[in-house]
Write a structure and sequence with these properties.
The chain is α+β, with helices and mostly antiparallel strands and 410 residues long. The chain has twelve helices and eleven strands.
């Protein structure tokens, strides 16, 4: 049963073809009226498919709300317990992404999202390095899960880093995202406990006059120069190819997610005039265009100089140092959320970026770029890396299959 049909009778067909309708009225009135509710808006009716070659939430357009959660398996859960959990989680994620209730019998669903459609909900699962030790599968752990090297900007909290299992939840509706979070946490039961949770947000679709790359809390357009799915080498850069060692065949079509909680020192940043901020980043604040000229989609001209003979994009600008041209072609798909967790003891905002990047190999994507940023990025004085995680994200599940089945049942 769909979340919407549970409260309002038969629905109208949504934009994605799911039979859904919109709730009318409030409270008990909406739950008892007999006339069918109106059709959902495009945002509410959009459904992302759970099954596919790749897991959802990687190439899915940025969503307005996100939750990142890491779990540790309970002592003794082992491979069998992990397999049972992934089977339950996958079945639940498929239901929720289709706009259906959590199931589990009367009263099991919390009712938080009963009057909503799928709202672009995605649920993505990954395995941390320690997962393979707890499931006696160390011989099938890929080298891409080797520990990340330390960086000078790291101020990492071990309690908010790593984890056996990682879940990324995204949606264009906050209640739909929260509903999925609670359902997945409850479905874990005694098999796993939450290690850490982080909550993020992006601009709501439709909030701007035209579609555009989102901005971060520094006010900068964030995501310019991201690899695009239509590019010929996109899959090679982002997804693990077939043909690797047989022990790692379970990861084919999957990817690696590097997750970093990066606090922005906004009080310091906001003291800089806009012109200085642009020099730090290497792009115009108004539209994200490179300081070498053009628009937000214009490639950077790293050799272009001004009247004084100096590069228009400074040597230590963040955009220059992180560009693929300066990193041997290293690229990653950045898909972040912003966060704000109130104020710190000194009154400064505890806010910043939940940085998530996807790549076929983190030691050819994230690591070389971060090492270079570590050596002289003009942005470094204004940020702190406070948590970190690296997760192997299996390929998508086929119909009738659960995520990770090719690893756990081989």
């Amino acid at each position: 049963m769909s979340r919407r049909r549970l409260i309002g009778g038969a629905g109208a067909a949504g934009a994605a073809g799911l039979v859904l309708g919109a709730a009318g009225g409030a409270g008990g009135y909406a739950a008892t009226r007999d006339d069918p509710p109106a059709a959902l808006t495009t945002i509410g009716s959009t459904e992302v498919m759970f099954h596919g070659k790749h897991q959802p939430g990687i190439t899915t357009p940025l969503q307005a709300r996100g939750h990142l959660v890491a779990f540790d398996l309970a002592p003794g859960a082992g491979r069998r317990g992990a397999a049972a959990l992934m089977r339950r989680w996958s079945a639940l994620a498929e239901r929720l992404m289709a706009g259906r209730t959590a199931g589990g019998g009367a009263g099991h669903d919390t009712g938080v999202a009963l009057d909503a459609g799928p709202s672009s909900l995605t649920v993505t699962f990954g395995f941390g390095r320690s997962f393979f030790e707890r499931t006696d599968l160390v011989d099938r752990r890929p080298a891409g899960l080797d520990p990340l090297p330390p960086f000078s900007s790291d101020h990492l909290d071990a309690g908010r880093s790593e984890g056996d299992l990682w879940v990324q939840i995204g949606s264009d509706d906050s209640l739909v995202a929260f509903h999925a979070l609670r359902a997945l946490q409850k479905e874990a039961g005694e098999a796993a406990r939450v290690r850490w949770q982080m909550n993020g947000f992006n601009r709501t679709p439709g909030a701007t006059a035209r579609p555009m790359t989102t901005r971060n809390l520094m006010g900068q357009v964030d995501g310019t120069n991201n690899p695009e799915p239509g590019e010929s080498d996109f899959d090679r850069r982002i997804f693990v190819p077939s043909g690797g060692p047989s022990a790692h065949a379970w990861l084919e079509g999957g990817s690696y997610a590097v997750v970093r909680r990066i606090r922005m020192l906004l009080d310091d940043w906001e003291k800089l005039p806009v012109g200085r901020q642009e020099q730090v980043i290497g792009r115009r604040k108004a539209d994200g265009a490179p300081l070498s000229g053009g628009t937000g989609t214009t490639p950077m001209d790293l050799d272009k100089t001004g009247a004084d003979g100096k590069p228009l994009i400074p040597a230590n600008a963040h955009a220059r140092i992180s560009s693929p041209e300066k990193n041997g072609g290293a690229a990653m798909l950045r898909r972040p959320f912003s966060y704000h967790d109130g104020l710190l003891d000194d009154g400064s905002p505890d806010a910043g970026l939940l940085f998530i990047c996807w790549q076929a190999d983190p030691f050819r994507g994230f690591v070389p770029v971060q090492r270079k940023l570590d050596r002289g990025d003009a942005l470094s004085p204004f940020i702190r890396h406070e948590a970190s995680g690296l997760f192997a994200v299996p390929g998508g599940a086929a119909p009738g299959e659960y995520v990770g089945q090719r690893l756990l049942e081989a």
